[in-house]
Hints:
CATH class: Mainly Alpha
Helix content: over 70%
Shape: flat
Number of domains: 1
Number of strands: 0
Order of helices and strands: HHHHHHH
Structural class: mainly alpha
CATH architecture: Up-down Bundle
Distance between the termini: 32 Å
CATH superfamily: Phosphate transport system protein phou homolog 2, domain 2
Radius of gyration: 20 Å
Amino acid sequence: MSDHTSKQFDSELESVRSSVLQMGGLVEEQINRAIEALGSGDMALIDTITATDKQVNRMEVDLDEQCSHIIARRQPTAGDLRLIMTVVKMITDLERIGDEAEKIGRMARLIHEAERAHMPRVELAHMAGAAIAMLRKALDSFARLDPVTAAQVVRDDLELDDEYRAIVRQLISFMIEDPRTISRSIEIMFIVKALERIGDHAKNMCEYTVYMVKGRDVRHIAVDDLEREASE
Length: 232
């Protein structure tokens, strides 16, 4: 590969990496807006979540095509190929996170259209903040090629799962004690499940980052083993 061609290739790879981070920023914005709308009942804000989701979907398709063209034209090997494969997988998870954010927005609309009638008292702010922090760390570890931070997110997902289960138990108790809370409790269950899935997708992204940097598939190994792999 000539020096000129090599510089073009590097530029293409950097463009793809930057676009992934831009897509991640849009998805994070979707989640923040969905959580804000859940508290405020701002219907216009919910509408912007749907509009952003369409933009995220377009970015996924565009990035997928860019990666396919790079593979066809450049025939990348080793680390460059792992980067392209990581991007292809990561943008799928980002698109699905966007879908989860839109789901939170839909539930927020239903809750506020019902005027928050018979709302169970459940604290969601901590879980939402934890899920957003995981996404942010996932994007940061990808940007900085940092497998250690990526491994931290995989462990964080275990805590998020515990919090999800605790909230579901709370909601079941509310529904048993007061059947009037059933509709709102089910809507909140959809929301906490969406937050739990956001954590799962952030975890997936981090496993891809470890693969990209270390060259080992760590998707189905214990967290302790993954952390050792990331730190070596």
